[in-house]
Amino acid sequence: MDVTAPAHRLSAAVSAASRLLPARTALRLRADAAGLTVAGRDPDLTVRFDCPATTHTDGEVAVPAAPLAETLKMLGAEPVRVVVEGSRLALRLDQARFALPVLPSVVESPASELPQVSEVDGHVFASALRIVAGTAAKDDPLPLFTGVRVQAGDGELTLTASDRYRMAVARLPLRSPGALDVLVPAALLTEAARQARGVVGLHSGPGRFGLSWAGGLVGTAVLDAGFLSEEAIPSGAVDTIVTLDADALAAAVRRVGVYAEDRRVLTLEVGDTQVRLASARQDTGEAEETLKADVSGGRTSPSFQARYLLDALGAFTGERVVLSIQPGMRACVLRAAETGEVALTYYLMPMLAR
Questions:
Q1: In this protein, which residues make up the domain named DNA polymerase III beta sliding clamp central (predicted)?
Q2: 91 backbone dihedrals φ, ψ, rounded to 5°
Q3: Residues 138-153: b if buried by 16+ CB within 10 A, e if exposed
Q4: Residue 55, strand partner residues
Q5: Could you state, in order of their start, the residue ranges of all structural domains in the chain?
Q6: What pairs with residue 297 in β-bridges?
Q7: Which of 56, 198, 215, 251 has minimal Cβ neighbours within 10 Å of its Cβ?
Q8: How far apart are CA 346 and CA 313, in angstroms?
Q9: CATH for the 240-348 domain, from 2.60.120.200, 3.30.230.10, 3.90.10.10, 3.10.150.10
Q10: In whole angstroms, what is the distance from residue 35 CA to residue 256 CA?
Q11: 3-state secondary structure string, 10-62?
Q12: Cα-flanking dihedrals φ and ψ of residue 298, to 5°?
């Protein structure tokens, strides 16, 4: 194999593949008339990224991912010559040469292409996913709480995630009709969507899900999606509706939260035309702040964990947010006052105030 490629473009492809794959996974570089392809796989995951290149000699080689990624990151934007020299893969520049060991060739059965079921705008998808995936658990003995449920049907894509204490549901338009219902590991899906550009294809097959875009492909095994559902959260007992500026409320939460106890729980006292945030800590004192708001329904005083409330409000930055408050320990439902291209619903469980 002998190929010349821009070092920064090759670095981006190698880094993207390395972030998605488990540590110590080898990368396969393949050069042909179309350019250079960086690929890797394990039993659950397949990734492929294309890199523009001038191919002098076709070929394919496997190399360790970590040293290749670290070396390329330091080379800048100049062209790099990537050539097999015996048992080494050499990276050649005008004044430097770096050589990595060529790993034994492993005969792999080609990954079956997952059929594409629909398409979505990549930027809108990544923006919605960033919010929804933030409510998934980072580590949980029940895998369903570490995933994002991806459902397609009736012309829209629905993304759902929850860590038991909160749930986010985003609905966005599909570019083409299709049917899909899978639960995908949240961290993997977020990283894959971050790499995607332009129109993103949604793929599905038995036990697998995939994303594709111009120059990239990620396919993964899926989790059991059956139990993660918005319908499982009662939301029909709303007795108080509060509408106010999300950024103003978030700023007040940050200030008042300084005085909260170790659990960082704040009380939101709803009045006739305002809401009052209050917290107290025995060793530092107490704080309260009042914000104007549009209020309808009964008066109530739910309490929330500050960081969860901030996460929820962050999804509505720059907007007015509607808080539909239910009595007792039922979820508070947050939505934007004016729905945009993405319809987001955020469920936040209240906390018991001390």
A1: 120-227
A2: -105, 115
A3: eeeeeebbbbbbbbbe
A4: 3
A5: 2-101, 116-232, 240-348
A6: 240
A7: 198
A8: 9
A9: 3.10.150.10
A10: 56
A11: HHHHHHHHHHHCCCCCEEEEEEECCEEEEEEECCCEEEEEEECCEEEECEEEE
A12: -75, 170
Residue 26, H or E segment: strand 26-32
| 171, two tokens | 């609905």
Residue 164 is given by DSSP the state S
DSSP code per residue over 235-304? -----EEEEEEHHHHHHHHHHHHTTS-TT-EEEEEE-SSEEEEEEEETTTEEEEEEEE-EEEE-----EE
CATH class for the region spanning 116-232: alpha beta
The answer to whether the 116-232 and 240-348 domains have the same CATH topology is yes
How far, in whole angstroms, is CA 122 from its chain's centroid?
12
> What secondary structure letter does DSSP report for 223?
B
CB 342 within 8 A of CB 171: yes
pLDDT by residue for the chain (354 residues), tens only, comes to 999 999 999 999 999 999 999 888 899 999 999 999 999 998 889 999 999 999 999 999 999 999 999 999 999 888 999 999 999 999 999 889 999 999 986 555 444 578 999 999 999 999 999 999 999 998 877 888 999 999 999 999 999 999 989 999 999 999 999 999 999 999 999 999 998 989 999 999 999 999 999 999 999 999 876 667 888 888 889 999 999 999 999 999 999 988 887 668 899 999 999 999 999 877 778 999 999 999 999 899 999 999 999 999 999 999 999 999 999 899 999 999 998 899 999 999 998 865
The architecture that CATH gives domain 2-101 is Roll (3.10)
Tell which residue, 283, 291, 290, has the closest CA to residue 258. 283
Q: Which amino acid is at 27?
A: L
CA angle 279, 249, 137 (to 5 degrees): 80
